[in-house]
Write a structure and sequence with these properties.
DNA-binding, disordered C terminus, globular, mainly alpha, 110 residues
Length: 110
DNA sequence: TATATGACGTTGC
DNA sequence: AGCAACGCCATAT
């Protein structure tokens, strides 16, 4: 196991409920800035490994990582994250590392 | 070893 | 806001 994998895995396991981060943020926190794509490859290799909260990982734009078939939207909603049109809305778009999820219902009036 | 592919990110239009 | 092109890194063939 490479240090990269070990680090990324640790960061993922450190995430809590409703905490959504992007690939780039994970790589950055793991100490490997710029390897966002490598994180995706790692999760891809992990596959159905439930030990890793892959569903809490989204794109930097807030869009879901995998296809809707993966059920990532449902998993995120189960943790209190608001997903609309395949996109996370509980966090500021751009760089939302450990975005604090606002547990509330339908109130889209920022 | 070289080429192609992809669970990404940024920039430009 | 959305879409296309380029760049970057790791795997697979």
């Amino acid at each position: 196991m490479k240090d990269f994998d070990q680090r990324v895995t640790a960061v993922l396991r450190a995430l809590g409920e409703g905490e959504v981060v992007s690939y780039g943020d994970i790589a950055d926190d793991a100490g490997f800035p710029g390897r966002s794509r490598a994180v995706g490859a790692l999760l891809s290799a992990a596959g159905d490994n439930d030990d890793l909260p892959w569903w809490r990982v989204v794109r930097n734009d807030g869009r879901l990582a995998t296809d809707p078939s993966a059920g990532q939207a449902a998993l995120l909603r189960a943790e209190g994250v608001t997903v609309q049109a395949g996109r996370v809305r509980d966090a500021p778009v751009g760089r939302f590392r450990r975005a604090p999820v606002t547990p509330r219902g339908p109130s889209p009036s920022p």
